Prior knowledge:
Helix content is about 30%, strand content about 25%. The longest helix has 21 residues, at about 390-410. The strands form 6 sheets. It has a 7-stranded mixed β-sheet. Helix 2 crosses helix 7 and helix 3 (about 70-75) packs parallel to helix 4 (about 105-125). It is of the alpha/beta class and about 700 residues long.
Amino acid sequence: MKTLFASTSRGLEELLKQELENIGAVNCKVTQGGVYYDADPSTMYQSLLWSRLASRILLPIAEFDIYSDLDLYSCVMNIKWSDIFAVDNSFMINFVGVNDFIRNSQYGALKIKDAIVDHFMRQTNERPNVAKQHPDVRLHAYLNKNRVSLSLDLSGESLHQRGYRQQTGQAPLKENLAAAIIRRSGWQTDEPLIDPMCGSGTLLIEAAMMASNIPPGLLRKQWGFFAWQGFNPTLWNELLFAAKHNVKKATTPFIGYDNSPAVLERAKQNAIQAGVGDLITFAVQDVTQLTNPFEHQIHGMIISNPPYGERLESEPALVALHSALGHQIKQQFAGWRLSLFSGAPQLLDCLQMRADKQFKAKNGPLDCVQKNYTIADRQVDKSVTSPNLPAADFANRLRKNCQRFAKWASQEQLECYRLYDADLPEYNVAIDRYKDKIVIQEYAAPKNIDPQKTRQRLFDIINATMSVLELTADQLVLKTREKQKGKQQYQKLGQKQDYFLVHEYPINQHKTQFWVNVVDYLDTGLFLDHRLARKMIAQMSAGKDFLNLFAYTGSATVYAGLGGAKSTTTVDMSRTYLEWADRNLKQNGLTGKKHRLIQADCLLYLSQADEQFDLIFIDPPTFSNSKRMNYTFDVQRDHLKLMDDLKRLLRPNGVIVFSNNKRGFKMDSDGMQKLGLIFQDITDKTLSLDFKRNKQIHCCFIVKHQA
């Protein structure tokens, strides 16, 4: 009888204990990350061959206290290694733990390696080889404070590597975790089993192997105990022969769906390699079109590991997918049972189903949950508009706003407008429409707010928005907006180059057109809250020389040009945005030498320019820290200096339209008077209907020379 340790993923220890007891292990004791148990030689080999849940099975060799690195060397040196493996076997050390004198795991492994090599040199005058890849012998050392536990790995490669999975999808489940999911689902081997998002087929293959009584270790060609001096090949071969003889032909239907033919082909090859290729039917099927292939089957099981992402851009699609999955399952599989494993519990809430049971587990470093559901024996789907669902008040507000603003936008001939701007404090987002695209900008939550709660609300918002506006996943774009400095608001987020044209107010019977990109940048290329200021510029620009500073993508220049400006000058430091401005100008027929584009630091340009203009539009950043020009700019602190430079460029009867987005900005009246400038606050006149709620979205002033 030997004492062994079987390791497993965190959260699966009790399940592993039950499995080992069923195999024949005794005195099982659960500890964090695994189970200690006693086994005779036959049970030891059976646990290696049959455990579907263990990651490794270790044979403890020695345990001792150390008080220096020399102690570690001496204690290991005194072990009779020739009784454990031969000198012609290669070995490696896996060392975990540190203390005051073993400062890193590499050093600990090195001391053990030196001790083992020196032991063999003294005993045999031969030196064993150390192999980092595919060693004959794996040794595990665990250091906890001053206590060292040393074990022989009887498994070799991790037990989750069954040997059938040659190719996988993007985020494969480990086989032992897949087996645990099957066990926890409550699936019975005579029940039909469907995985609607099967990927590389691991869940179905593990279930089919269970139904066929195929040991998970049957395909393995190499074991850690092969090089162990205590290995009994006769007993092992007897057990292996018996296992092969007891494999049976399962009759349970297994079906795997995925929307990728290439992924399904890999799943088929994995199933064939596992010996269950003839048991599983794989077919291309989008989960949004999922149907029940067993018309007269009353009972069955659906098990899946739906995708979950950590990037914001993936979340609208994932919410849509889970919502569609919940809808189809409730419509098609009444009376069945469902078990889903996910790293994003909030996404499972989008199913709008109540779980009977749930279990926690780790998938690598990720905290995950498995939820089991009984699908009600009815076929009625309740959508997000139900008053009992999360975010019902948000959905109602968004619906009212949509009805109100859609009519107004149609009358104004606008394709882009704001639908919602943190109207309800607990749903702290802005929602903008750009033609048929909807952009949700999540305002970053304070650090004292629970991130899980914040993300749950975000999922509720996405779910409700998609339902109320009847969107597909590719129509919704999600961004997070934090307080930005300088041109951080222009930062690049992606490389999709997804530009499309939108229209604004017609000017002189010409509908203004702008290229926008709602995916690649934090801002889209068109500031919606400035549209009335742009329209005002068009009305003021006929026959004028127009200057646009901090021009971004040149939308104000387009209005000035269409309004009949004599010339336009567009200045910005960014080449990207000047090229974007050039496209906007050409799209509106504004070409030729009278429309200049200048790449320059706007503040430097202001201090050096020697020409004058009749109309100047300037919308500077609230704050800028220019590494290139080695200065900082604060619009509140520095606006008088800005106005002094602008005054020099402004013709006697000229006008400056000065806008900025600093909350609570105050114009320095005394300072402006000393500069010989007068100003008028026109903020209210530049706030359109969709921005009336947010008086702080921007401020805007008309500035002129004193008479």
